[in-house]
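Rotation project, supervised by the postdoc (A.L.). Task for the rotation student: set up a whole-complex structure prediction and record inputs and outputs verbatim in this book. Inputs entered:
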Amino acid sequence: MLKYALRRLVYMIPILFGITLVTFLLFNVAGGNPAIVAAGRYATPEQIAMIKAQLGLDKPLFMQYLDFLRQIFTLDFGYSWFTKQKISTLFMDGVGPSLSITVPAFLISLAITIPLGLLLAFFRKSTLDRTILVIALAGISISSVVYVIAGQYVFSYKLGLFPISGWETGWDTRWEFAVLPIIILVVLTVGTDLLFYRTVFLEEIHQDYVRTARSKGLSNRTILWKHVLSNSLVPIITLVILEIPTLLTGTLLIESFFGIPGLGGLIYQSIENSDFPVIKAVTVMTAILYMVFQLLSDLLYAWVDPKIRLG
Amino acid sequence: MLKQRTLFAVLAFLSITFIASCTHKVQIDNSVNVELKGNVKGLDPVGASDLYSSFAMSVVYESLYQYNYLKRPLQLEPLLADGMPSVSKDGLTYTIKIKQGVKFADDAAFPNGKGRELVAQDFVYSWRRLADPATQSEGFWVFDGRIKGLNEWREEAAKGQAKYDAPIEGLETPDNYTLIIKLKKPYYQLMYQLASTYTSVVAHEVVEKYGKEFLNHSVGTGPYILKEWIRNSRLSFERNPNWRGEKYPSEGSPGDKEAGLLEDAGKAIPFADKVVFYELPEDQPRWLKFMKGDTDFVEIPKDNYDGAVKDKKVIPELAAKGVGLRADPDPDLVYIGINMMDPVLGKNTALRQAMAMAYDSDTYIQKFYNGRAINAQSIIPPGVDGYDPEYKNPYKANNVEKAKELLKKAGFPDGKGLPAFEYNCSSSATDRQIGEFFQQKMAAIGIKITIQQNSWSQFIERQKSKKVQIFGVAWGADYPDAENFLQLLYGPNESPGSNASNYHNKEYDKLYDDASKLPPGPARTAIYKKMRDISATELPIIPDANRVRFQLFHGWIKNFKPHLTILNSYKYMRVDMDKKKELKGKM
Amino acid sequence: MAINEAMTQTLTMIEPQTIKKGKSLWTDAFQRLRKDKVAMVSFVVIVFYLALAFLCALNIAFPNYALVDNTIAYQAPSADHWMGTDIFGRDVLARAAHGTVTSLIIGFFGAALSILVGTLLGSLAGYFGGKVDDCVVWFYTTVDTIPYILLVVAFSFVAGHGLKTLCLAIGLTSWVSHCRVIRSEFMKQRGREYVQGAQALGAGHLRRVFFHILPNTFHLALINFSLLFVSAVKSEVILSYLGLGVEAGTPSWGMMISDAKLELARGVWWGLTAATAFMFFMVLAVTLFNDALRDALDPKLRGK
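Outputs recorded:
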């Protein structure tokens, strides 16, 4: 087990290297010259040159790449070009709001889709199954943008049930702003999640052991909850773990539309402003998070299923 | 069953939060609540190029001079200066006295946490920061090439560490309350710059203590201090107990008295205990926040106009809630720029004239500004000297037939032989629609336009790298002088400078230089008009509109008289608490 | 994305062998599909959209979609304009219909490019294994871990904006899931008897890859194509919202939905409704058909 973990950790290194390289190439090389914009309305060529030097952009590419690597290892990504704010502060500020939306939405979605998926898999082809399937499929046939725009319009504007947008930092005061975004996020994800879990459970249910259990006379309830669910737990949990990094980056669309000062909004703004240090930092941090959780997920899978370890 | 229990839990959660949201407390406090259309980046005066940051800074930082809140046309008056400056006969030396007893706000950076008295040296320090390359300020242009010794100091600073104690010939402080500015050549816009946010004064102790975090830690001489900043959401400022105090103006413009704007004449300001800025880049949330009474005034987004204003008056439902309307023309110009370096567009005047003639500013204004703008005839907008409301640009007649003739004269009958031109704009939905409108108008005479949208910073970068052909932009006055618009076509200002059209005309440039040597007056205005005529015929830019700002404000806000160039208006506003209670109850 | 990957992992459990009764995979699947009413209806809808797009592209259907008339801007649905008019007085129904062309192009080319790249890299990795495999896996892990939006943004910095860039951007960033599927399929197939048989007959590596193994993965490509198609069409909407959409003036569902952000405030709901409705039926039809196709091709469900 330890060997497997170590092997995987070592394997992460070239990936990390690849990510930093690709990110660097994408933004430092292809991204254009931010000094031009930074110099302002009345820019002069000498001003632009000065700013370029200040931003460290006149160094040879290789040196810039090393600087970037150093930033990643020390987790000090410097300052945003656009706002001049410290990037790590921007991150820390953004994490709370993003998680306040994504974590409740995630939990609620899980709580709905797993039991429901189990039920539908069991009663496959029944009216309940078909109806809910159609609703889920219909739901994912509508763009998320539509849900966000229409949701805010109907529930905040027309019906006045929720505030239009905004945020409060207090742990007790933020919820009135979080409710509608959470609901919309649940609606967005519940369709795909439900379909997925239903498929997973279907696979399990068609296993031979289920037929055996049924012929042994075990009740459906026992079969479902004790056997199918627990056997499906592994793929489910490994999947859930993989989803966790996405919770952190929040959802761009919802955050920008509802004025929630989270990481998603940060990404959106930095794209609009060609704020490369922020974009690069977010890219690398997100990638690292994905890798860490992928590793956790794989380790869990390996721990449960010895066949993988030996492979 | 688990499913049932989960469902119940979910429902319980939702109902609790629903109830919580319903009991959202109605805020009734003595605060002025401001909507900002963009996010505040930081509160450092060297970053005042960002308009929204400047609004927030205006309640904390002060400059030597300010614009009188009520007088129109804009007039300068002393703020931190003690009286207007005495200027030498050759216009090269300005001697300014500083008010005594002005204190910085309390902060841990000062000994015993008590804000110390402002001295003349503080201004020199603050302006050095503008010149210091390390701050990457976009604001150096206000002094660039003007003050003796400052450019040289900046070049030295670029080589290594800036020496903040090195003397600068053009910035002398013979004593704590006297500042002498020595110019290289006459600079009649200097006074305006001394009223801008860029030149506002900061304390070196605070900058030294907070370093790179200074932009989050504003400490100024102004009437408010920063209490809370929820990034990308809002900033709250509270009354500065140590402020020296000022009085509400006793004189204004004709009509102010009738509008009730002189009721508080002579009273001590600021009136509001708090000023809160809400960062609301999206139109709809901004509008709805105003409708709920959470912000005190709002610039009406184009899509909400019909639902709020009829025949230039507030609709009855809103009037019943005490909502008022103000229409203020801005010294602003929306225009279509043409890159004169383009081999086809730059060489062919008749072609550009054809494009201007085919364009329809009136429909543009109707569609995108609900008719709330003036059809701009030239590069000089209302509100600055040189503006002539009677002037009509012959090429803005919106005559498709004449445009076709001009196109023929240009050598491209019905657009034959013309390549497609690229129109550049930002990626916002409205800008895209504006681009489509331009596309349609040009198509009517046979000119093919493709639209290239980019993120805002990419758009700027393209302009400054001369990579654009045609672009849609706007320019708001930095100060009330037509020069601020005329410089948009001054040759030496070509990209990456403000002359994004890269227009080079020797006659125009000479007139510009001549005008810069003259103080404001008829002689200078005459030169401005000559320059205007040249630009109106050559059309390196097609003037489109001068926007009029329509703002709604709630009945409890008094002394509301906004102007694009006056940023520090919040200290004059007063909240009528009784009215607020009464009107908010109706919401 | 994790869910997609896991979903497609379940697809690898489908075995591409001929089954009892001598029916080939495809014949069997076709027959089962014929019997599935939902699949048939979906198929008809898809054909309808293809026909509509074809007719629109030739300007036979709704030829006046670009007709501007500023005097009738933002009119509510009426007898003249069944779904009303937009900001420039253009017929909304016509624009939504023409938006089908844009979405089909993006969906088709985006998905096709993804399938192409994914198949190429996946087959090489799965077949040759070893260093080649390591390289490919390294590459796709890297691409997969970088957030999708940022890749597209970076792409647009270089390639500009517009339809071509969108297709390229979506195509070059969505191939990882299919690549994984193909790779694992090839790994399974390369040791099979029929491949060894081909080798014995003198077929070189490339021949074996392209003529023998690859055809056995076509059903995976087909299923994934539909998934990627839907994903591309939905991405266009989000990218349009972020300002990375097609060129202004081109009718597109994404633009119409983005514009709704501003329009709803003045009570103009018809643009949003038209675009959403058109997209809804197409996406639903493709999804349902794809679902049925998957079931039809799944040997485990045969005989049930």
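Student's summary: Residues 168 and 174 of chain A are 5 Å apart (CA to CA).
Supervisor addendum: Chain A has a mean pLDDT of 82.
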